Amino acid sequence: MRYNPPATLHAREAFLRIQIAFGVLVALVLLAVPARAGQGLPDPGTDREFSAKLTVCNECHGASGIRKNATIPLIGGQPENYLLKQLHDFERGDRRDEVMPWMAKTLTPPELGIAAAYFAKQQWPARSTAAASTPPPPGVAVCQACHAMDFVGARQADGTAAPRLAGQGYEYLVEAMRRFAEGERKNHDVMTKMMAAMSRADREAMARYLSGL
Q: Among 10, 89, 140, 148, which residue's beta carbon has the most beta carbons within 10 A?
């Protein structure tokens, strides 16, 4: 079955309005929370204000891997270094999204690092059913060079981390590949060039294979 990008502008706008409405609700809650008295780094387990911000993350990405939209990625269990880079990229505008730049800017610099560590320590969600066996598509070895042989992510020579792809949602993977290929996502030069060189059919086959691991 061929993947089609998010159906219509109206559908995307409706989803965005839901996200913003929830964000406003949380912001109102935060205004009612006493300011942080203290000193030291915020603790997600005890800091009510920081915990409320993380609730916004879980609202979309899912506290247990159950996402609100298929094009939203699983982030629990991803490498901490990778998550932190994406948060910084959203904050600086190097990676575009309807919601994430706003979300990243609500976090203080210390909170960005703690949020990345918080989600990195979570367990990657277990499959509820056995995945269908899909043969490796051509070119899979090129992806393994950065993402590891089993596609669970790996630290690179420059210190950055490649994300886990094994078991990531098909809809997110194929949409991310499309955005790289068409120049909508520009925060990784190598990925932009690789995806632009792949056909749509090859990207879809790769996404199907990776999501089934």
A: 89
Q: Identical fold at 9-35+42-120 and 140-211?
A: yes
Q: What are the pLDDT digits (tens) for 5-28? A: 555 544 554 565 555 545 545 554
Q: Which residues of the chain have pLDDT under 50?
A: 9-10, 13, 21, 24, 28, 31-32, 35, 37
Burial class (CB in 10 A: 0-12, 13-18, 19+), 193: exposed
Q: Is 160 exposed, middle or buried (0-12, 13-18, 19+ CB in 10 A)?
A: middle
CB-neighbour burial class of residue 52 (10 A; exposed 0-12, middle 13-18, buried 19+): middle
Distance CA(197)–CA(204), nearest Å, equals 13
- Name the CATH topology of 140-211: Cytochrome Bc1 Complex; Chain D, domain 2 (1.10.760)
**Phi–psi pair at 75, nearest 5 degrees:** -120, -20
> What per-residue confidence (pLDDT) applies to 31?
44
Task: Give the C-alpha separation, 63 to 48, whole Å.
Answer: 17
Contact in structure between 19 and 13 (CB atoms under 8 Å): no
